[in-house]
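job 3f2a | input accepted
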Amino acid sequence: MQLQGLYAVTDEVLTPYDKIEESVDAAIKGGIRVIQLRDKHTSDAELYRVGVKIKKLCEQHNVIFLVDDRVVLAKALKADGVHIGTNDVSIGVAREIIGEKKIIGVSCYG
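job 3f2a | predicted structure (110 res):
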């Protein structure tokens, strides 16, 4: 798995879930190599259903699939990794949850 190329981030407002599959598919066809599922408001249970669809598309096209903030959800979806910010779990805790071979992205400030 090589982390390079265009990186897209979904948004629950800008990428409505009734159109997310076609939006992600179009992004992949346009050259996206990494998709990050980002949603600050939807429950994990609801977001899991969305994540399954995105994960399937990513697997079909060899695109890296990351989940924003939610390490346990990323593990449940068998995502390629997770992105965490300063208000999320620590890198060490994220590593314990998601495993040694997964990607962990971290927001850097300043």
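job 3f2a | The chain is about 40% helix and 20% strand.
job 3f2a | closed
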